[in-house]
């Protein structure tokens, strides 16, 4: 297991290096002068020069890239051009909020999507199945921000169950309470994806020979579905969850802004407004790492649900 | 006469194809006697598997069943699903043609063998697992203890079929239905598995219904044979009678398709093939392929009475 994880992490180094190069170059060739953007149009030439000097913007690209890499090797993503705070610190401060939001969305996706998908498969082509399929199609085609706004209008403003602004500041209970509505609105897509995958996976599995074997053994219907079939149907479902995690992080940014919730989303908007290039660069690098780790976790989940997959 | 374990009377199986009910099995009757091996033979598509599955009412809901299957005084076909669950795997067990796909890939061999014991005998999982070990010994799988923790993909085809047999035998059923249990295996393994089944039948005194299209298998293991053609049972006889005095033209043709050591080599395939169920001919279903067909064959003949029964107008001249 440890060996597998190390090997997988090592094998992502070329990919990550590619990401680093792209991020680095993108930021530098993007129009706009950070010194001008940060100090303003009225800054004196001396001030601008001093700023460029301090930030190392006068060095050649190669030198800058070397510095970027050696910083990274020491676990540093540099300091914010605006606040002077280490980028790693400001990202790590808000990352847990985004992660809990994404995990909350997956949680809702599973506890709602999985049972509905199974029901849909068991009553395939019945009216319930058609209804659920239409609903899931709506869930997929509805933009996340619209879902969020509708949920706020309905659950926060009309019924006053949840706060309009998600400000998780108190203890764990308060934190979960503040998480529910954003996670639910972000989870709608996940519900739809998981439901559709669960439906088709269950339909495939229920037609397999080993289900007939289980029936021939006298296994009752519930055991047939929840034990024999579901265990096998989980394999494609794990894939979908892993695959859409990246999409989820992307959508989380929007959700966070709508709910005015701390997280990567707010940090990105702030950094963009302030032209804080180092922070943006750090954000992208950390997101890339995140995706790598999620892929790794997906592979480990595979091995857990499918004994034919060996972690080597 | 021995009382049969199971009696199948006028069994018919229909499927709806393009809004029309088509009879895939056309009213067949036979008995299963205690401690015998009954072989059901016939070409591909003649309804062997669906007949076998209907013996424990395992067909999908889309199949329409008719007739009566009496087991222990009760009609299997009119039983509720709950009652059937109590019989399946415990008193009647079934093993299937495809050992590669018939075992659940994500469950251990041990769990799959132990499951019927837990379901039917009320055993705890650990007791059932211990019994599963014994069953692996019974089907002659070496290193039983280690095998219990393995998954199907770690076993060869022959091993998997032995595991299927172990699952089938777990609750000591009275009837074991084996649907082409050796077709997917290579020849030496085939012989081993057949010998194993025969030994176990003798030891445990169960009845085996063996589905096959291989007359070599029939000659090896059968006590009685039922020959099926296109959903009809065309001939049934004790195995020796069938091989020495085949009476139905289809059986005769079928026998000519196997090479025999004691005859000049003359291999004759049967012309044509089993029609799909939506295109079954009226009258005798074999007539279009029968070299001896005549006018009378436009009306379907009845199965003659007696231990060597034939369903053919020409039988009087023959038997
Ligand atoms: N679920 C189904 N729906 C419609 N037709 C079916 C269904 N199951 C079986 N049939 C038809 O019933 C006929 C008999 O099928 P069956 O599987 O019993 O054949 P078989 O004798 O076992 O052949 P094989 O040697 O190929 O296994 C075939 O024509 C098949 O197409
Ligand atoms: Mg078959």
From TrEMBL, chain A:
<dbReference type="InterPro" id="IPR045621">
    <property type="entry name" value="BPD_transp_1_N"/>
</dbReference>
<keyword id="KW-0812">Transmembrane</keyword>
<feature type="transmembrane region" description="Helical">
    <location>
        <begin position="130"/>
        <end position="156"/>
    </location>
</feature>
<keyword id="KW-1003">Cell membrane</keyword>
<dbReference type="InterPro" id="IPR035906">
    <property type="entry name" value="MetI-like_sf"/>
</dbReference>
<dbReference type="GO" id="GO:0005886">
    <property type="term" value="C:plasma membrane"/>
</dbReference>
<feature type="transmembrane region" description="Helical">
    <location>
        <begin position="176"/>
        <end position="195"/>
    </location>
</feature>
<dbReference type="Pfam" id="PF00528">
    <property type="entry name" value="BPD_transp_1"/>
</dbReference>
<dbReference type="Pfam" id="PF19300">
    <property type="entry name" value="BPD_transp_1_N"/>
</dbReference>
<comment type="similarity">
    <text>Belongs to the binding-protein-dependent transport system permease family.</text>
</comment>
<feature type="transmembrane region" description="Helical">
    <location>
        <begin position="12"/>
        <end position="30"/>
    </location>
</feature>
<dbReference type="GO" id="GO:0055085">
    <property type="term" value="P:transmembrane transport"/>
</dbReference>
<protein>
    <submittedName>
        <fullName>Peptide/nickel transport system permease protein/glutathione transport system permease protein</fullName>
    </submittedName>
</protein>
<keyword id="KW-1133">Transmembrane helix</keyword>
<feature type="transmembrane region" description="Helical">
    <location>
        <begin position="101"/>
        <end position="123"/>
    </location>
</feature>
<feature type="transmembrane region" description="Helical">
    <location>
        <begin position="279"/>
        <end position="305"/>
    </location>
</feature>
<keyword id="KW-0813">Transport</keyword>
<keyword id="KW-0472">Membrane</keyword>
<feature type="domain" description="ABC transmembrane type-1">
    <location>
        <begin position="95"/>
        <end position="302"/>
    </location>
</feature>
<feature type="transmembrane region" description="Helical">
    <location>
        <begin position="233"/>
        <end position="259"/>
    </location>
</feature>
<dbReference type="InterPro" id="IPR000515">
    <property type="entry name" value="MetI-like"/>
</dbReference>
From TrEMBL, chain B:
<dbReference type="InterPro" id="IPR017871">
    <property type="entry name" value="ABC_transporter-like_CS"/>
</dbReference>
<dbReference type="InterPro" id="IPR050388">
    <property type="entry name" value="ABC_Ni/Peptide_Import"/>
</dbReference>
<keyword id="KW-1003">Cell membrane</keyword>
<keyword id="KW-0067">ATP-binding</keyword>
<dbReference type="InterPro" id="IPR027417">
    <property type="entry name" value="P-loop_NTPase"/>
</dbReference>
<dbReference type="InterPro" id="IPR003593">
    <property type="entry name" value="AAA+_ATPase"/>
</dbReference>
<feature type="domain" description="ABC transporter">
    <location>
        <begin position="6"/>
        <end position="255"/>
    </location>
</feature>
<dbReference type="InterPro" id="IPR003439">
    <property type="entry name" value="ABC_transporter-like_ATP-bd"/>
</dbReference>
<dbReference type="Pfam" id="PF00005">
    <property type="entry name" value="ABC_tran"/>
</dbReference>
<protein>
    <submittedName>
        <fullName>Peptide/nickel transport system ATP-binding protein</fullName>
    </submittedName>
</protein>
<dbReference type="GO" id="GO:0055085">
    <property type="term" value="P:transmembrane transport"/>
</dbReference>
<dbReference type="GO" id="GO:0005524">
    <property type="term" value="F:ATP binding"/>
</dbReference>
<keyword id="KW-0547">Nucleotide-binding</keyword>
<dbReference type="GO" id="GO:0015833">
    <property type="term" value="P:peptide transport"/>
</dbReference>
<keyword id="KW-0813">Transport</keyword>
<dbReference type="GO" id="GO:0016887">
    <property type="term" value="F:ATP hydrolysis activity"/>
</dbReference>
<dbReference type="GO" id="GO:0005886">
    <property type="term" value="C:plasma membrane"/>
</dbReference>
<comment type="similarity">
    <text>Belongs to the ABC transporter superfamily.</text>
</comment>
<dbReference type="Pfam" id="PF08352">
    <property type="entry name" value="oligo_HPY"/>
</dbReference>
<keyword id="KW-0472">Membrane</keyword>
<dbReference type="InterPro" id="IPR013563">
    <property type="entry name" value="Oligopep_ABC_C"/>
</dbReference>
